[in-house]
Design a protein that fits this description.
It is found in: Cell membrane. Pfam families: MFS_1 (PF07690). Keywords: Cell membrane, Membrane, Transmembrane, Transmembrane helix. GO terms for molecular function: transmembrane transporter activity. This is MFS transporter. This protein is an all-alpha fold. The protein has one domain: Growth Hormone, Chain: A, CATH 1.20.1250. Helix 2 packs antiparallel against helix 6 and helix 7 packs antiparallel against helix 8. The longest helix is centred in the middle third of the chain and has 30 residues. The radius of gyration is 20 Å and the shape is globular. The protein starts with a helix and ends in a 6-residue tail after the last helix.
């Protein structure tokens, strides 16, 4: 049997163990980004900072990811994928552990920026890394499984690390995650296959991709969807307090997580066949959940169900947009997903800062209104984008 034929047949069998390990990387990646959200009041008190400064602990991380994703992914294209991933995991670990040991807000922000730079390279790279291990008809499935770590991080990881932070302090939370990342890096050394990099050409450059109309549509949908979700999620503690929700932030995150898990499983199964329907449904469920918050406030049962609906909407967010942009190109999928990833992270910063300013003038109920204003256009565009999301 020839080497090429053996490689082709190996791609027919979906590599679940490898994909789950890659999913663990995205799991710690999203936790590194969002951890401050669950313990924001505690960090604000400890570091003596304002709510806007607290939001910047997430916002600056995101803007670093957005700014550095495209140039660094392009620069590291020739690098071996496994070695590059191990370097990024080391960056995540150091930025979290050291931040947990320091008391300077400025230095912690710098460490958050370092973590954001690592994330900016990791998100698009690992998706393309996984796609190179399977056949084209399994690309959507590979992305869904790998990006499941993002959803699991929010649905399961965030409640756990928030509990650790509230019980043992936010510093313990950061250090514990850093140590876990080091353990994960050791597993990657032994389990992940070594894959060579690719040569960047003019036809596969970021500027060439930005001339493709379908890519621009995906980027617009990314901008709308991410801004809508994260503008509310980063300040979820403030929303829960305003609603006076029974069960508090832990209960809200649990319901949100259950909904995310359900939609994640659906995304793994159906993304390759029903990308457009899932994208429309994502925007629609987001709008409905926000309307319920506005109309019914903290009404027990109804508001809890709204957190569940919001989770259903949030679960496939990363998967859908990365799958959509990867469908538009044949080669250099790392670059395509880096453009999408950069677009994904930039609105996190904008939404975080914008929502923080709104909270300075209005009650937290202004956040669902902002989300609706962004979700409705996203739903309409997704419905009309038949060719792009086919």
């Amino acid at each position: 049997m020839s080497e090429k034929r053996a490689a082709a047949e190996s791609k027919e069998v979906f590599p679940w163990l490898i994909m789950i390990l890659m999913s663990s990387v995205t799991f710690v990646g999203i936790l590194s980004e969002l951890m401050p959200s669950g313990v924001l009041p505690q960090m604000m008190a400890d570091l003596d900072i304002s709510e806007v400064q607290g939001g910047n602990l997430v916002g600056y991380y995101a803007i670093a990811s957005a700014i550095f994703a495209i140039p660094l992914v392009s620069l590291t294209m020739p690098f071996n994928r496994k070695i590059l991933l191990l370097l990024l995991l080391a960056g995540f670990a150091v930025s979290n552990i050291v931040a947990g040991l320091l008391h300077s807000y400025t230095v912690i922000i710098i460490l958050r920026v370092i973590g954001g730079i690592c994330a900016g390279v990791m998100w698009p790279m690992i998706a393309a890394y996984g796609m190179r291990l399977v056949n084209a008809n399994q690309h959507g499935k590979a992305i869904a499984v790998i990006m499941a770590g993002n959803t699991l991080g929010i649905s399961l990881g965030m409640p756990v690390v928030t509990y650790i932070g509230n019980e043992f302090g936010w510093r313990t939370e950061f250090i514990a995650l850093g140590v876990f990342i080091l353990v994960l890096a050791l597993l990657c050394i032994f389990m992940l296959p070594s894959i060579p990099g690719e040569k960047l050409t003019k036809s596969s450059s970021p500027f060439a991709l930005l001339r493709i109309p379908e890519v621009l549509i995906v980027l617009l949908l990314t901008l709308l969807g991410v801004s809508a979700h994260y503008g509310v999620y980063v300040y979820i503690t403030s929303l829960v307090e305003e609603l006076n929700l029974a069960g508090g932030i832990e209960g809200a995150l649990l319901l949100f997580g259950v909904g995310s898990l359900i939609s994640l499983l659906l995304a793994i199964k159906y993304t390759d066949q029903h990308l457009r329907f899932l994208t429309v449904a994502m925007f629609a469920l987001l709008a409905v959940s926000m309307v319920v918050f506005i109309l019914f406030g903290g009404t027990t049962g109804i508001s809890h169900f709204a957190f569940f609906l919001w989770g259903l909407s949030f679960g496939p967010l990363v998967t859908l947009f990365q799958a959509a942009v990867s469908k538009q190109v044949e080669k250099a999928k790392d670059v395509a997903t880096s453009v999408q990833s950069s677009t994904f992270n930039f609105p996190i910063m904008l939404a975080t800062s914008g929502a923080g300013l709104l909270l300075g003038k209005y009650t937290p109920m202004v956040l669902p209104i902002m989300a609706i204003a962004l979700a409705v256009p996203g739903m309409v565009i997704s419905f009309l984008a038949r060719k792009t999301l086919s």
